[in-house]
């Protein structure tokens, strides 16, 4: 097939392109392909030239090409993604660009370029497969976390009425699982143990440590050992058995004698517990010991204190997810803020105090909680 002069003159330029180029006449017969398209096609130019462009596509494929070409022309575009039929039978993903022009003699021609995007498509396929695997793995992690959350929630302190005392308890992790926990645990017929604990950090690591400390604390409380000895044991346990200084923890523990209305309290690096008689200023019970898990002598020599409780008194134990919250001005609620809220909410019936206290904290806080929260309230009847 005779090629026009302008095409002969352009061949050297067309051969330098890194895109496949096909030129067709007004009857859609192929006049020319460059060597780049030969390599992409797998056919020699001699096997291509003189054939219709449609000869190498199925009817359905060529119909798509015509539809896409017409649609792109109406949109003012001339590029679309499709395939190039290769000699060995497979389809090479390409970007097809088509442009019509008229030569000096008034004859119509079309220049079609083919850009190989197989590497891009392979990368996209690998990315899709990787994303699918990640999605599956994330689903497995989410399922594991949901199970872990159910297990951890089952360990949350329960509200109860016990002898001449009643207890309300609240637990809320900022993530699916958290590093806080609380305990409401009768020791025997006369003594009730209350405890809240806060492991540093958030998420899975803190939750695992918290669960391990929970089990050890339950064992120690069940033995009836003095609270000061329990603090020392937990400090050694964290340092020796768990062997990590990256995670520390604080706690506040109380053991109440039902008959004598006496309470022994021991805190370690924890926000002050409070005893409030409705209508009066809450009394603060400060921690005498330091944060546990970091220093061998973190527990004070006189770690525990003994206080009297009267009928109507309320005891408040909480973690710093209650006190270390900030308002829109960046001011922290702090111990004084919690003390004020406790004083005011203690005037309510005991059954309403917990929710009122949480509502007041939420009203102070700007935005959603950023730390785990545990709260244990006790009233002497």
Description:
The longest helix has 37 residues. It is built from ten helices and 16 strands. By secondary structure, the chain is of the alpha+beta class. Strand 12 and strand 13 form a beta hairpin. The chain has two domains: 112 residues, Beta-Lactamase (2-Layer Sandwich), CATH 3.30.450.20; 226 residues, PPM-type phosphatase domain (Phosphatase 2c, domain 1), CATH 3.60.40. Helix content is 38%, strand content 28%. The strands form three sheets. It has a six-stranded antiparallel beta sheet. The protein has a five-stranded antiparallel beta sheet with strand order 2-1-5-4-3, sandwiched between helices. Helix 6 packs across helix 7 and helix 9 packs antiparallel against helix 10.
**DSSP E strands, number:** 16
Number of helices: 10
If you consult CATH, what is the topology of the largest domain? Answer: Phosphatase 2c, domain 1
Instruction: Indicate the mean pLDDT.
Output: 91
Q: Tags for this entry?
A:
28% strand; 5-stranded antiparallel β-sheet; rod-shaped; alpha+beta; 16 strands; 381 residues; 2 domains; Phosphatase 2c, domain 1; single chain; Beta-Lactamase; 38% helix
Q: In a few lines, what is going on in this structure?
A:
With 381 residues, the chain is α+β, with helices and mostly antiparallel strands.
